[in-house]
Design brief:
The complex is a heterodimer of chains A (125) and B (292).
Chain A: E1 2-7, H1 11-23, E2 26-31, H2 34-43, E3 48-51, H3 60-69, E4 77-82, H4 87-95, E5 100-103, H5 108-117
Parallel strand pairs in A: 1-2, 1-3, 3-4, 4-5
Helix pairs in contact in A: 2-3
Chain B: H1 3-17, H2 26-39, H3 45-53, H4 57-68, H5 79-95, E1 101-106, H6 113-124, E2 133-140, H7 143-151, E3 153-155, H8 156-159, H9 165-171, E4 172-175, E5 178-181, H10 183-186, E6 189-193, E7 206-211, H11 220-232, E8 234-242, E9 255-257, E10 264-267
Parallel strand pairs in B: 1-2, 1-7, 2-6, 7-8
Antiparallel strand pairs in B: 3-5, 4-5, 8-10, 9-10
The chains are: A alpha/beta (125), B alpha/beta (292).
Chain lengths: 125, 292
Amino acid sequence: MQTCLVVDDSSIVRKIARRILEGLNFQVIEAEDGVDALVVCKRAMPEAVLLDWNMPVMDGYHFLSHLRRMPGGDQPKVVFCTTETGVEHISRAIEGGANEYIMKPFDKEIVLAKFQEVGLIEVAA
Amino acid sequence: MTPPDYEYLRKLLREKSGLDLSADKQYLIESRLLPLSRKIGLSGISELVQKMKDGSASAITQAVEAMTTNETFFFRDKVPFDHFRDSIMPEILRARTSRKSMRIWCAAGSTGQEPYSLAMSVKEMGAATAGWRIEILATDLSQEVLEKSKAGIYSQFEVQRGLPIQMLVKYFKQTGEFWQVNPEIRAMVQHRQLNLLHDFSQLGVFDVVFCRNVLIYFDQETKINIFNRLAKATEPDGFLVLGAAETVVGLTDVFKPYPERRGLYRPSGLPATPTGTSTGSMAPRAAAMARL
């Protein structure tokens, strides 16, 4: 089973994301901010990260920069999931190494489509 | 929307249209029926449901229409667009190298996601299509739908399903909460109102025909009739692309499946199938299929 790390300071969003991802057969680990998430990644790299942008302590963008410099940190597929919906933020995320980008609000269909897009979930032939 | 209202709508839609909504599709009903409620002067979905329960045939018809039509998204089903890029385009580019032109028809172009997905796919091929004249024609029954397609303006929700984020940034311009397809991509697509039940020979002949998720609404005889006419509208070495739940097998021999490419067909060169007789015993049980 693949693991997805959900990084969001909102416990409600984490709960919704957990329900969606478990429905897509992912094992879910939660983190409240970027620092917390780096600790999780040092222990074991997840296959996927669903990442909020604005969080206390360390935001999603800085987490991504740290992650991509870690040994094995190029492996996880990182999908931003944020209320930052401006094209500047999206471009910055892609340049920073994000694989996909979800603009909140989100639902299962969107998560499924994005995870298929980055190859985490196979598309039925 | 209350759970009883949702259950009522789910049951009604299943009975009236074969549309089978799973338990987590509240958002879909809200996104379609809330605008409809407002449009007919009601305060919301609860009032609409009450009107339907009171026996308003008009409210029921409009709700079913709102839920069953024009459901589409960019690169819908992904695989047909992989076939387009990896099988169809290389063959057509090779076969038409002397005239450097090709024609693509989206026979159920709907609100534009399919024709614009094809236009972006062509654009992504870069130098391979440079100097080519590539015409993409999008037709649909509804003028209202075509107007939306022409405008090329989509909500945040619409651009998030199927459209890779890099393509969103590359080919769209953000306007507030909406995203509009770039003029260059919009200019690649022509629009025309058309009912597939009527003669379409005036459109000419195409190298590629996308006719996805529309034939499922027709009965067997009508499908055979449309396939016969589509075969005449497709170049002998051209391609027909059908939806995942559609096939020609058991209905007609005018198209033959392309090996190992599900949903992809080529003209067989065989004569038109007479309506009133199908060619096999494997006619698909497509009537119950819905577009979602």
